[in-house]
């Protein structure tokens, strides 16, 4: 049976992991490669690297980092942040990234999704959607959730699928950073309405939240950052608990 | 040992090359027929869309070369699918090495299948020291139907062939290069065939 996936997300700036990682046994917590290897050893199913300060000038630094991760890490990984062109994606995949994640650039120019899916295949195109619930309606937000749009979440998600995305990474701005659990109602609706995998993001605080998002939220994968980076939820224990709750995971 | 990864413009070639580097082996990327013929082991990768991948193979004449190779050949993901008779993706004729057809998963399940699933009913030295129900990483929308060349099976909507073998030709639907320690073991086994 296909298992539910656990995905740590690492924020990257100038090719280094941004503060907020607190692993006792790491020699250099700022080294994305070392951190990625450790997560892979601990049973992470995939990794996401988010370049939070992506600019044209530091693109080469990020490509170097991707190359080093690909050299040393034996699980799949996605790279996101500041990606808006076919040639940029080509360069990332050439360096060994398995998937790329696009967000604002897809909203600004939705054809980008078609172009990437046609050229590289849907399997490597993740569309990240940040949304916020306002007056009982979910609206897509841009630029890390800071800029609201008139675009409705479920309509956009459907369009993203039709244009050829292989996967959706959904972050609820209402839940992100709260540690109160994932946006399971919206996630379940996405899962019911779409036929591509959905990654839940935003709100992980304890093990029960992961159980809930797989059961109630029907999520295919769950992404989190701080609970993993600070060792609050060690991945081996999380997976054991999920298994004990009859959720299929890779142990 | 001379290891060649066929480079015809399709696929996550770097990942495969790095996976062999981690095992202590250099792999050459090549589309040169003489170099491919002279290799001890050949990897036939592939990610993307079947008809355009097959078009690239034909343009370089590799569609004629690959079925004639005598050394162990490992097709991965789309590489394996292109070694079959036919795939529904783009209604594409394959190389006809494996006597089976490739079909699309129905919309009763999420497509693509993306993530870790188990391989079972293992029947080949390719899986030496790999236990039944080991997890492998898969990303695919199309699957190979069972035939008597099946050497591993996986369940997703139906039970399908997740690995195939015909004489010196091997194929895996999963990505051993991305399947952690067990995937690396399978690549090591391939090198020892």
TrEMBL record, chain A:
State the EC number(s).
4.3.2.10
Recite the UniProt keywords alphabetically.
Amino-acid biosynthesis, Cytoplasm, Histidine biosynthesis, Lyase
Query: Its GO biological process terms?
Result: L-histidine biosynthetic process
Q: Which GO terms describe its molecular function?
A: imidazoleglycerol-phosphate synthase activity; lyase activity
Gene3D superfamilies attached to this UniProt entry: Aldolase class I
Where is it localised?
Cytoplasm
Main location class = cytoplasm
Q: In which pathway does it act?
A: Amino-acid biosynthesis; L-histidine biosynthesis; L-histidine from 5-phospho-alpha-D-ribose 1-diphosphate: step 5/9
Reaction it catalyzes: 5-[(5-phospho-1-deoxy-D-ribulos-1-ylimino)methylamino]-1-(5-phospho-beta-D-ribosyl)imidazole-4-carboxamide + L-glutamine = D-erythro-1-(imidazol-4-yl)glycerol 3-phosphate + 5-amino-1-(5-phospho-beta-D-ribosyl)imidazole-4-carboxamide + L-glutamate + H(+)
Top EC group:
lyase
Record's GO cellular component terms: cytoplasm
The active site lies at: 11, 130
For this protein, the record's Pfam families field holds: His_biosynth
Free-text function comment from the UniProt entry: IGPS catalyzes the conversion of PRFAR and glutamine to IGP, AICAR and glutamate. The HisF subunit catalyzes the cyclization activity that produces IGP and AICAR from PRFAR using the ammonia provided by the HisH subunit.
Q: Which family does it belong to?
A: Belongs to the HisA/HisF family.
| Subunit note | Heterodimer of HisH and HisF.
Q: What is this protein called?
A: Imidazole glycerol phosphate synthase subunit HisF
Q: Which organism is it from?
A: Algibacter marinivivus
From TrEMBL, chain B:
Name of the protein this chain belongs to:
Imidazole glycerol phosphate synthase subunit HisH
Pfam family, any one: GATase
Matches recorded under CDD domains: GATase1_IGP_Synthase (cd01748)
Transmembrane parts of this sequence: none
Q: Which reaction does it catalyse?
A: L-glutamine + H2O = L-glutamate + NH4(+); 5-[(5-phospho-1-deoxy-D-ribulos-1-ylimino)methylamino]-1-(5-phospho-beta-D-ribosyl)imidazole-4-carboxamide + L-glutamine = D-erythro-1-(imidazol-4-yl)glycerol 3-phosphate + 5-amino-1-(5-phospho-beta-D-ribosyl)imidazole-4-carboxamide + L-glutamate + H(+)
Q: Which organism is it from?
A: Algibacter marinivivus
Subunit structure of this chain's protein: Heterodimer of HisH and HisF.
Pathway membership, UniProt: Amino-acid biosynthesis; L-histidine biosynthesis; L-histidine from 5-phospho-alpha-D-ribose 1-diphosphate: step 5/9
**Entry-linked HAMAP family:** HisH
- Keyword annotations from UniProtKB, A to Z: Amino-acid biosynthesis, Cytoplasm, Glutamine amidotransferase, Histidine biosynthesis, Hydrolase, Lyase
Active site annotated at which positions? 77 (nucleophile), 175, 177
Cell compartments where the protein resides: Cytoplasm
List, alphabetically, the InterPro entries matched.
Class_I_gatase-like, GATASE, Imidazole-glycPsynth_HisH
The taxonomy runs: Bacteria, Pseudomonadati, Bacteroidota, Flavobacteriia, Flavobacteriales
Q: Which stretches make up the Glutamine amidotransferase domain? A: 4-191
């Amino acid at each position: 049976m296909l298992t539910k996936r656990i995905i740590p997300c690492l924020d990257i700036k100038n090719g280094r992991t941004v503060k907020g990682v607190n692993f006792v046994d790491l020699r250099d917590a700022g080294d994305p490669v070392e951190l990625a290897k450790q997560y892979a050893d601990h049973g992470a199913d995939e990794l996401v690297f988010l370049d939070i300060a992506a600019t044209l000038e530091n693109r080469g630094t990020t490509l170097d980092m991707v190359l080093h991760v690909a050299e040393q890490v034996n699980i799949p990984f996605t790279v996101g942040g500041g990606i808006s062109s076919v040639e940029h994606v080509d360069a990332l995949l050439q360096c060994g990234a398995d998937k790329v994640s696009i967000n604002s650039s897809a909203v600004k120019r939705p054809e980008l999704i078609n172009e990437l899916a046609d050229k590289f295949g849907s399997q490597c195109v993740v569309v990240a959607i940040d949304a916020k619930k306002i007056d009982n309606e979910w609206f897509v937000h841009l630029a890390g959730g800071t800029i609201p749009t008139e675009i409705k979440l479920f309509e956009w998600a459907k369009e993203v699928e039709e244009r050829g995305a292989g996967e959706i990474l959904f972050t609820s701005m209402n839940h992100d950073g709260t540690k109160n659990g994932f946006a399971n109602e919206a996630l379940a609706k996405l899962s019911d309405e779409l036929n591509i995998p959905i990654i839940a993001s935003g709100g992980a605080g304890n093990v029960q939240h992961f159980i809930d998002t797989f059961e109630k939220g029907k999520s295919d994968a769950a992404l989190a950052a701080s609970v993993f980076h600070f060792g609050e939820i060690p991945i081996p224990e999380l997976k054991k608990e999920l298994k004990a709750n009859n959720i299929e995971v890779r142990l | 040992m001379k290891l060649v990864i066929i480079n015809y413009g399709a696929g996550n070639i770097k990942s495969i090359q790095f996976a062999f580097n981690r095992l202590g082996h250099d792999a050459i990327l090549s589309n040169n027929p003489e170099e491919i013929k002279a290799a001890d082991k050949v990897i036939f990768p592939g990610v993307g869309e079947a008809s355009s991948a097959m078009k690239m193979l034909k343009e370089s004449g590799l569609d004629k070369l690959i079925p004639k190779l005598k050394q162990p050949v490992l097709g991965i993901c789309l590489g394996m699918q292109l070694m079959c008779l036919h795939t529904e993706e783009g209604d594409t004729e394959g190389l006809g090495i494996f006597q089976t057809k490739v079909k699309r998963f129905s919309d009763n399940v999420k497509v693509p299948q993306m993530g870790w699933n188990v391989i079972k009913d293992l029947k080949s030295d390719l899986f030496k020291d790999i236990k039944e129900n080991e997890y492998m990483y898969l990303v695919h929308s199309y699957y190979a139907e069972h035939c008597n060349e099946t050497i591993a099976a996986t369940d997703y909507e139906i039970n399908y062939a997740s690995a195939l073998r015909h004489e010196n030709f091997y194929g895996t639907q999963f990505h051993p290069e991305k399947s952690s320690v067990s995937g690396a073991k399978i690549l090591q086994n391939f090198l020892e065939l």
